[in-house]
Automatic annotation (TrEMBL):
This is NERD domain-containing protein. Residues 31-139 form the NERD domain. InterPro entries: NERD (IPR011528). It comes from the Bacteria.
């Protein structure tokens, strides 16, 4: 399993000290991903749609595209913003009613539009490019002069379906694959991972809803567990898988049954063995079976 900065931070929450700066970066990232997942649901509901999620290109500078969608005549670039609150669009800036200013939110969209045109020219792909910034949070509103050729507001999301019409999916699939082959991830290279000692981390089951560490043992025969912090009902298997993934991330190496039981609040080895055989790879190191992804 390839770890990344944000997965490590999420896995460390509640297990050791994390700096306020890392927590803030994580919360901002998490908010952004929540918005992207909402848009991903829209795209997945459209039949025969060829799209790329999170394309990263490295050149003299780095470029990251939230979504690229290939249709018969147009390639769409969508940048997703999960801002919430009341804003005014003024002189290219977004100004919140509490005074907070987001400078030039369209700058990255324009920059990516330019580089995407250059990439398509180099690949001899003849498609017009249309770029949109999508404010996807239903609790976001904006007043001021709004360019409807560039900006899509939460109450206009149905516009996306009208834009994305396909009939020549084989060609669109080829374009998608060609662009995907250029993907060169860079996002994680700029983060400094927090220092921690694995053996000093607090083990325990992670609630997948509120991120609280559940200290109490899971009852072996209960398939649904109620979190004592958020009171959500969560499938027991989901909790175990989440915790095993965190064990894998934080150890940075394959783990054994003893470690799995310690981190999963003493869940019976037969249960863990069944889950790990289904979702992890297994190798033998000496006389010990270890698991990894």
């Amino acid at each position: 399993m390839k770890k990344n900065y944000y997965s490590v931070i999420e896995s460390l929450i509640g297990r050791t000290y994390i700096s306020p700066q890392d927590i803030q970066k994580y919360e901002t990232y998490k908010k952004g991903k929540e918005g992207e997942r909402k848009f991903l649901e829209i795209l997945n509901s459209i039949d025969q749609l060829e799209f790329i999620y999170d394309l990263q290109l490295q050149s003299t500078q780095n470029y990251q595209f939230d979504f690229i969608v290939s249709t018969d005549k147009i390639i769409y670039q969508f940048e997703i913003k999960n801002y919430f609150g009341k804003y005014e669009f003024n002189n290219g800036n977004l100004i919140c009613d509490n005074g907070f200013v987001i400078k030039y939110p369209l700058a990255q969209l324009d920059r990516n539009d330019y580089i995407l045109n250059k990439v398509l020219d180099k690949l001899d792909i003849e498609r017009t490019i249309k770029s949109y910034i999508i404010f996807i949070n239903g609790n976001f509103s904006m007043k001021g002069k709004i360019d409807e050729e560039t900006i899509i507001l939460p109450n206009q999301l149905n516009k996306v379906r009208h834009l994305l019409k396909n009939s020549n999916s084989p060609n669109n699939s080829i374009i998608k694959t060609t662009l995907q082959n250029l993907h060169t991830p860079f996002e994680d290279d700029y983060h400094q991972y927090p220092n921690y000692e694995f053996n000093k981390l607090k083990p325990g089951i992670r609630c997948t809803q509120c991120n609280n560490i559940i200290d109490t043992p899971l009852k072996n025969k209960k398939k649904i567990i109620t979190c004592s912090n958020c009171f959500n009902d969560i499938p027991r298997k989901e909790l175990i898988l989440k915790t095993l993934d965190e064990l894998m991330y934080l150890k940075g190496a394959p783990f054994d049954m003893k470690e799995a039981r310690k981190w999963c609040n003493g869940v019976h080895r037969n249960t863990l063995s069944y889950i790990m055989k289904e979702h992890f790879n297994m190798i033998t190191q000496g006389n010990t079976k270890v698991y990894y992804k």
